Amino acid sequence: MVRNPAPSPTAVLRGHLSPVNSLCFVHDHAIVPRHDAPSLSAAAPQGLVSGSADGTLKVWDMTTRREVCSVQAHSKAGILQTATHGAAILSQGRDGLVKWWDAVDGGELREFRTLAIGSYTFTKAHVVDANLVLVPTEHAETVALFDVRTPGNQPAMEFHGASLKSGMCMALTSLPVSSGVMACVGFEGGVVALYDLRQGLTPVVAPAVSPSTVLCMEPVYGSATLLCGTSGEEHVAVTLTAATDADTATFYRTKQPGISAVANRTFDDRIFATAGWDHRVRVFHRSFKPLATLKYHTDSVYAVQFSRDGKWLASASKDHKIALWCVYPPSST
Q1: Would you identify the CATH topology of the domain 119-253?
Q2: Could you check whether 10-33+44-116+300-332 and 119-253 share the same CATH topology?
Q3: Could you tell me which residues come within 8 angstroms of residue 255 by beta carbon, excluding any fewer than 6 positions away?
Q4: Which residue ranges contain the repeat WD (predicted)?
Q5: How many CB atoms lie within 10 A of CB 18?
Q6: What is the sign, positive or negative, of the torsion defined by CA atoms of 6, 9, 15, 16?
Q7: Is the pLDDT of residue 272 over 80?
Q8: Does pTM top 0.85 for this prediction?
Q9: CATH assignment of 10-33+44-116+300-332?
Q10: Comparing C-alpha atoms, which of 326, 246, 328, 325 is closest to residue 290?
Q11: Is-contact 49 24, C-beta < 8 A?
Q12: Share of the chain above pLDDT 90, in %
């Protein structure tokens, strides 16, 4: 049987001088001006934001595939996380700071808020909504929820994991369920704990989903399911309810360990992608059927994300490059 060759990137963004640790698409033209292109839908990405290990934050134009602006956002300790919500950009550095940025005249970025979280680990912050952000803290087993409308560094709520005896928190996300929104925390010992954002403190449920460290998580909206990547060979999909235990998890094992990031295509929840330490980006159907292995990068892949319209997949790597892929567009899946 002749296999189809693996697709190549549609474009590659070069400009970072160190490993690219994070990226996210920009859909607000206050950050990247919209080009006069009637064919672009409202869900089409205007640009992309990336952060690298030398502390540089860059904004890219998706139409021209060129850099719009660059700023030394954090110290040489590097940037761990980038995210956008509306016209604001969030960056998290290994200098213990989370910063918010907006675009000013001329396309430059202006820092308008800084939050000292005291965490110098590799755990990435998570934006819950326009006002709430989950962050790691100086206490390795504790996560804090901050409301950006409240001045100062006092968290609105804290979530404690010491009683789980599962090591430090390693991954953060949030999961909408019928009763509200849950904070999800993945731990070093393979436990995923759910905390009620209205109550905090102790977990509602905390199943052990893997024998390996949970490195990343991504919700599948509408199904109360979390996609998890680990330091081992496991990709895990677990449906989380008050009765969840480890037996409800679905596993897929790769030949190589280490999954840095996982991204669900929220446009239709039909496919997801993972970033591997083995330099590969893997694309799966929601049933865990492997669809493609993307082999462009020459070093570990640290981040993946789909655009809101589902047409683009971006990957960022230790090789200093960002690859843009057009694989399995929504109309063909």
Answers
A1: Methylamine Dehydrogenase; Chain H (2.130.10)
A2: yes
A3: 233
A4: 48-70, 294-325
A5: 15
A6: negative
A7: yes
A8: yes
A9: 2.130.10.10
A10: 328
A11: yes
A12: 60
